[in-house]
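Input/output pair, single chain:
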Amino acid sequence: MRGALGGPRVLLRRLREVMAEPVSAQDRLDKIVVLIAANMVAEVCSVYVLRVDQTLELYATEGLNRDAVHLTVMRVDEGLVGHVAREAESLALSDAHAHPEFSYRPETGEEVYNSFLGVPILRAGNTLGVLVVQNRARRTYTEEEIEALQTTAMVLAEMIASGELTALAKPGAEPAVRRPLHLKGVALADGLGLGHVVLHEPRIKVTNVIADDVVKETARLDAAIGKLRHSIDLMLEDDGLAKAGEHRDILEAYRMFAHDRGWMHKMREAVLSGLTAEGAVERVQSDTRARMMRASDPYLRERLHDLDDLANRLLRELTGRNRSSEREALPENAILVARNMSPAALLDYDRSRIRGLVLEEGGTTSHVTIVARALGIAAVGQVENAAGLADPGDPVIVDGQAGEVHLRPPGDVEEAYAEKVRFRARRQAQYAALRTRPSVTKDGVHIELHLNAGLLVDLPHVTETGAAGIGLFRTELQFMIASAFPRISEQLKLYRAVLDAAGERPVTFRTLDIGGDKVLPYMRTVEEENPALGWRAIRLGLDRPGLLRSQLRALLRAGAGRELRIMFPMVAAVEEFDRARAIVERELTHLRKHGHGLPEKVYVGAMVEVPSLLFQLDEILSRADFLSVGSNDLVQFLYAADRSNVRVADRFDPLSPPALRAFRLVAEAGLRHGKPVTLCGELASRPLEAVALAALGYRALSVSPASIGPVKAMMLELDVSAARKVLLPLLEDKSGMADPRAALSAFAKASGLPI
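Output:
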């Protein structure tokens, strides 16, 4: 490096000595800027720290007026230092005065310096401050000098992130790295979660960034990269992933990045500048993250997640750490933070320790959201950069009602939410008082409220809530959390436990609804362009009759001596239902032949989720004993809007006339044929939407456990005939301007309904 006294490696070694000295934070910073200035042959070296109010404060300087330390403050949209912080990119100028954003503070005395080199102090792509060197002469800083200063900034980033500088700050002007954050998202699952951050894909914390032996560190980096590439190649060669669609695409992207020469070159250069192999990976990824986070192109933002994961895999190779040990060490009151999660991944955690879930993605009807609701976990989705802003162990509050997340909340916010928790507990006590009251509206309409369930942990809710029964038991959840396909004996044990817990109450078991985003880890998947519309649910069961038969046999044996209700999902044609029902009859014959006890009565029904069934309602009702509307899938298929795609999932309102007309068709067909019809989608769990369903003629709803109380409280105050007078004319409106949601909201307010 031109003019440097000993080069970056010498500087890093000296910085390590300074970091180890038992001195105050200010003395440490003062020594650091002197060392950097001497090594860079610069007349000025200054450190600016980003504060909680998003301004930059001068924390230390060599060369400028030292009286300006902790007095000079500037906005991030002000001056060259602000430019570096805002753009998270280095800025090297031989004539700083000529730059359009140049401004100077008279108290610093910096107007005599012409050359300027500023680099952002980054951690996980987030700006913590700015490191600057300046010279009087018009000097062109070399790439090597810029690289050296960026490397040095890593040491300062760890110092700031450690909280060491907090003691130097005035109240309200603390370093932003630990600042409280109020993050807005989308409410996914109601509830309040107070706890501490657990990253689903935890970043490896690099504690030693300064290398003792550059040659050794280069060899370690090369070896880890070789292992990483080999592990990706092995996964791609695995037969189970040979045709795994999206999973394979991700691995192909990983392989491409792992062999990228530019990525490799940057990491090797960082090691040669004096960093450890781990420090080099973190440095390059933090720089890349800072740039890509500011990109507007959604493709680049998507690739950022791939690179984050790849860098973390490489750090795991270097440190020898694995995910399983981290999962086992789950703390009490854990709040999971992730880019996204599959339902199986959420179920893999110890439910008793989870208090909340924060996702960067996630839609209101995605399957992980449904599982979170079933488990009673407060969840918020679409929280931008949540995993990058949070550190493991950070205190956090998840407001699943308002769709808000408070990261590192101040004391007054914590106390306010503690009071909110107490209020919710009192409200839940009020709902509990309604447990034994029949769900009958003010005008005498009885509307049964059933429970959606899928796990043993759900079963106590049947009694606790006073539910009329279990309107939807999702049998696939047992399969998703198992490491191997559950044997008939294991299934039999679960189904008997469910029926025992329900007692005299009815239970409707939905047969396996796997496929799409519900993948069994031990089953080979197939590549599909659109898995939600592909080989899933009853289609898979009919093509794999052995799979369906084993489940039906377990259900029929579990129901011996009782009434049993079996429901087939994703029925698109009556022929599918006929074939599935025939398998039920064959299994009954098999059990009868072998002397097994049989159910007193078997009711076989179908879910209305595929729009084609709306035009076969008379045919299906002549065959089925009951129908249940799966509003989540029916709405997504009606509007061709993938419910797991956050860009379109909430674009279409399920309370719009087209969707309500579809729901009405099913309710009226059930009445015409004298067959019971239930709606078991997430729609029924929201009181305002439940008003609409009651007005359309639904007399049985299946909802999440937490929604029984709120929906029943509303039903007890509802006049269904009055709601029909408001809603039904809107469904006949041909203007295209009808707004049922607004009309029902006004009706609920005027009627004093607790919505």
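The chain has 27 helices and 22 strands. The radius of gyration is 31 Å.
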